């Protein structure tokens, strides 16, 4: 058997439907043929700049057409692309660049300070127009097995790991989604989520694979998002609870047109009042469950079940299987356990982490660490994301990662982080610390210490100095009991 | 890398959307859950009857819900299914059963005479209701590489070959089609083509993979086909020129509703007057090019190009690549040559014919034997199907196969078959023969001799007794020159 190869996505799309609109921003639209031509030019320029097949190139950019062109250009050359979160601190970025063995960083002038440590092979997008071009051999086909992108995610260990997403992972994710949501030639998918997250990147890929328009906004603005739906034909939007809530507020009683057929709601459990508001305003909300390791959604709930299965994430996409495991045994319906998923969109593994890979992925089954159950009819209910994961404004925040930073301070001897509810962000992290000596630090000192080391959204919103942290018999931190320290 | 596995299609579909209508006939509809339950029951019965995983089982049946249930049941067990053309003669059926090493034949009472030679493991569908059941292990997933079905096709040699279609071939065909035509949740696909042909079978698979309704008619009836579109919500229909022509005639000036979004026109080149009639009646006709070896369509022309690219079969489906080869070199645009296609829907090969396989499929590229060119914009124009292929009412007729039968007569020393235009069938075969001795046979004798040996549609409509057949210097029959013998 030869490996499955798919024609170069953008090149094939530009050949099949050259004149359809690929990308629409607030001020500009470009067709698939134009996008292809721009990507090809950038690929020639990057070749001139020394990028070659099988290199690892990182991108640290804000959502823009240029960023999309670079993403495709790197595929034309056959590069593995690392997508960096723009909210990360200098130190976090440096760590990911080193860990991924990045050969070149493509970024923008506004991130000059943030990436100053990587001055060796740093290319600013603003400098590209003047770069000469050099011919190279365009990748005519993409191999299903080849690594396309790497996105970093942390786990319970606090050490970020590079999730490798193959061309096949992305392809099957797009296909699985289309078999669930359908695919209309006039679809327009609004991207208000960053492309360095899988929820954003997957929109770009779907646009090219489906031949539909991706409408992109640089950041999230509720009015602009609503305008895109009300005036500019957007039919699908990917949202998290925070953004959807603001959009409904901004809507102020108006209703969306019928052409708007899907609000794909991911990034953590949806609050019940939000789902009820969606029903009230007839918003076709599809709750989803997915993660970086599954190259986007794997489980989705159709609006027809919004009420009867309130709180459920739905059923798996067609190519996906799920099971609930409890002490290595498959749980009965309605019995809680670890959510385990299998399918061709499950990541091929963590970059350079064979141990972490074989621990998380066994015989193709991904052990998510999330807790949930499946009801009698097969609907998944997610009860707890990775036991201690905090989701703040759609961003994953791992307590262990913050604790590791806190513990790196010479005067902090113990640290525990947990999430508390927050009206604006859903959840925010708070920290509990034990000092080496009473009064040696105050909470402002601790916050100041975290700045630069942690992305802003990871910096604890409150710091509590305590005498002792809740631990079990084997002295393992009981993060869920932390909250009792302030409730009491 | 582990092999890509997809959950058992019908089982997964019945789990995901149990209550959607899977099949609708003129008198009955069944949901996906019912279809699954029926298929499971039949699989249990077939297990009782001795069928087991990796067996080869042939089906000779007319389109019906029962046939669909059997097709799925065999997949549940993990059987390779041979789909037999009901129009074949006794001898042809016997040949295919032997060649495919079939363990069991599932047929219906009306084909008792036709299959009398295979009385050992013959199961009549009418006898199934009384068969006991026996449990077996349901195939929970389908491996992309595994052979699912075998369909026989002839080539220039006249010897039919069993085209193996893997689960992956069918899967990718369905996906490629959805990326081209889109996928609407309320789609209903009308099947008036037999399920033993890939054009029919692929509708059943799409129904299950997409979660849409297959509307099935036992045979073709223009009024019923039009009613299905006008009254029963059919949105897509697969047709050949002959059937579409009759549907337009029966329409008698009425227009189809807007919900009817695609007439997928395959089975040979479309006559220009038919395409013009489609434009006149605003029928969304998509011309296609495909074959058994590509598990259905690989090239499709959207209606927007019906006029500007009249006569073209269109551009490839997203996962497919095409090229035109001329003496081993890729032809220039507008230059004719052999049509060569590559993609994950290209057959894994001919059953038990490694030589024929390696001759037809090289490095994943299928040499179709068809002649055509690609224009400046990449549109394919098919000029000649396999040089000597006759397409009669959508059925492929291979001259060499008929010639072989004619030459098996002791008094026929030379034979040549070609196609002539026919108002009703598009083309029909005619034969030219040379006798061992003048007057030893008349044309009626020859027709009588063919009956039972050849399917009715392959029996020459006229027989011409001639003194000499046109041959080239190396004495190779020049089939295209045959027609001159009667034109002169």
From TrEMBL, chains A, B:
<comment type="function">
    <text>Converts 2-succinylbenzoate (OSB) to 2-succinylbenzoyl-CoA (OSB-CoA).</text>
</comment>
<dbReference type="InterPro" id="IPR025110">
    <property type="entry name" value="AMP-bd_C"/>
</dbReference>
<dbReference type="InterPro" id="IPR020845">
    <property type="entry name" value="AMP-binding_CS"/>
</dbReference>
<dbReference type="GO" id="GO:0009234">
    <property type="term" value="P:menaquinone biosynthetic process"/>
</dbReference>
<comment type="pathway">
    <text>Quinol/quinone metabolism; menaquinone biosynthesis.</text>
</comment>
<keyword id="KW-0474">Menaquinone biosynthesis</keyword>
<dbReference type="Pfam" id="PF13193">
    <property type="entry name" value="AMP-binding_C"/>
</dbReference>
<dbReference type="InterPro" id="IPR042099">
    <property type="entry name" value="ANL_N_sf"/>
</dbReference>
<dbReference type="GO" id="GO:0008756">
    <property type="term" value="F:o-succinylbenzoate-CoA ligase activity"/>
</dbReference>
<keyword id="KW-0067">ATP-binding</keyword>
<dbReference type="InterPro" id="IPR000873">
    <property type="entry name" value="AMP-dep_synth/lig_dom"/>
</dbReference>
<dbReference type="InterPro" id="IPR045851">
    <property type="entry name" value="AMP-bd_C_sf"/>
</dbReference>
<feature type="domain" description="AMP-dependent synthetase/ligase">
    <location>
        <begin position="11"/>
        <end position="351"/>
    </location>
</feature>
<comment type="similarity">
    <text>Belongs to the ATP-dependent AMP-binding enzyme family. MenE subfamily.</text>
</comment>
<keyword id="KW-0547">Nucleotide-binding</keyword>
<protein>
    <recommendedName>
        <fullName>2-succinylbenzoate--CoA ligase</fullName>
        <ecNumber>6.2.1.26</ecNumber>
    </recommendedName>
</protein>
<dbReference type="Pfam" id="PF00501">
    <property type="entry name" value="AMP-binding"/>
</dbReference>
<feature type="domain" description="AMP-binding enzyme C-terminal">
    <location>
        <begin position="401"/>
        <end position="476"/>
    </location>
</feature>
<comment type="pathway">
    <text>Quinol/quinone metabolism; 1,4-dihydroxy-2-naphthoate biosynthesis; 1,4-dihydroxy-2-naphthoate from chorismate: step 5/7.</text>
</comment>
<keyword id="KW-0436">Ligase</keyword>
<dbReference type="GO" id="GO:0005524">
    <property type="term" value="F:ATP binding"/>
</dbReference>
<dbReference type="InterPro" id="IPR010192">
    <property type="entry name" value="MenE"/>
</dbReference>
